[in-house]
Amino acid sequence: MPAPQIVTRDLNLWIGEKHILKNINIEIPKKEIAAIIGPSGCGKTTLLKCFNRLIDLTENVKVKGKVIVDGENIFDPDIKMIDLPRIREKMGLLSQRPYPLPMSIYDNVAYGPRIHCRLKKKDLDETVKHYLEAAGLWNEVKDRLKDPATSLSVGQQQRLCLARGLAVEPEVILCDEPTSALDPNATRKIEELLVKLKKDYTIILVTHTLRQAKKIADYAGFVYFGELIEQGPADEVLVNPKEKLTKEYIQG
Amino acid sequence: MNFRTTEENIFKILMFISLIAVMGSLIGIMAVVLIKGGAALSIGMVTTPPESGYYLGGEGGILNAIVGSVYLASGATVLAFFISIAIAIYLQREFTSSKAAGIIRTSLDMLWGIPSIVYGVFCFIVMMYLGIGTCLLAGIIALTMIEIPIMTRGMDEAIKMVPPELKESTYVLGSNRIETAIKVVLRQGLPGITSAVLLAFGRGIGDAASILFTAGFSDHIPASLFDSAAALPTMIFFLSALPSPEVRDRAYAAAFILLSIVLLISLASRLLTNKFSRYIIK
Lengths: 252, 282
Description:
The structure holds two protein chains of two kinds.
Chain A: E1 4-15, E2 18-24, E3 27-29, E4 33-37, H1 44-51, E5 61-69, E6 72-73, H2 84-88, E7 91-94, H3 105-116, H4 121-134, H5 138-141, H6 154-166, E8 172-176, H7 184-197, E9 202-206, H8 210-216, E10 219-224, E11 227-233, H9 234-237, H10 244-251
Parallel strand pairs in A: 4-9, 4-10, 7-8, 8-9
Antiparallel strand pairs in A: 1-2, 1-3, 1-5, 5-6, 10-11
Helix pairs in contact in A: 3-4, 3-6, 4-6
Chain B: H1 3-37, H2 43-47, H3 63-90, H4 98-113, H5 116-130, H6 136-160, H7 164-172, H8 177-188, H9 190-206, H10 209-214, H11 232-239, H12 245-276
């Protein structure tokens, strides 16, 4: 097994008085698809939001423990607010519902490159084209790049969000039930893209459809009411789990 | 007829009555102002300042008040805009705790409720202390103070409507708080922000009590910030207090001009916002 990309050490999280995550020790392998499965409302999304410190936007949050990304504990008290963009741009995010920015299709993809470096118009055009191609959207939108992003279908919007995230050149793609708002056809496209992308990116996929996890995941973790019950290669955890709780969940 | 259809019908009728009451007031005001002031309206009225004897029925117009009002209200709206937008952005979760934001919002609501004459008297005292006296600048400051709570609360509500997931997605792309606020939040909140500015402008151009003490009154078009200036509301106030009925009709004509300015500006900015809101996430 290659060295892990993200490691958590005794990660505990409270929102107000509620203990949401309990002693999470998970190891996310590099350049594979790691699925995090579990029932709704058990802390999967919260765990995902810890990986890029998006959790900071929630009120009354208290975090204890470490999240180590590339050898750096991102919850180190020495890390100031000003460092957060640097931590966050390592991770792309696909959320449950696509949220395109209130701009044109072109500007959505160009948003990241524009804030990180000054590119010439020609280079920016190339970058936008490159990432729209990577998200399998270029052929559908190449003639209407100036149209509002909202003019796309939901499935296309989700792929636009993927292109927008890839344009920041992240190492990790966090997916929070990225297909829950999509029809089967759009779902299949996203799944195929994720499989294609794992060559270059570490992918963390939060999902509650077991079928999706079985289909594309290489590694899996089962979270149950804030605790990580089991983790390991996907064909072990999802097919022959060791723990009784996992077994019950998988068999429905 | 069962209970539920009766209930539905009662509420339908109530809603219709409310609509009639609101639309009726608007149409009623326009009609009265036009009927009473129509005779006094003329090109000269909007192109010349009052000549001697204007208030007794003599020649001239109210250009001084039109220009004064435009100066006062636009000056105040521009000043209030920059202050309000800064406060409204600051009130977001990322910048301030919800407890502090709650205190600020309550204070703004209290400021909103203070009668404008109080702002006028307050600014008058401050200006006297500074040795400036009644002038255009003092009027602009008083109106700015009146407009800030209205504008800020309006913008605040518009910004609150921006979905948190939209903000999250820009943070994920590596934006900091300021970039997110300016490039995404303000863009998404644009229609609501425009409404807030318009609401404040309307209040600013229509207020008489606060500028009575601060801007003073003058028959001349103000040439500098330190000249006293007339405004349409104060002009209406003076004209309608005069004994001669023909002169009193001029007050209605002035009111018509005031209404036209407000209507024109709100139409223009609606059109402008529609043009820009093409990209907004619904």
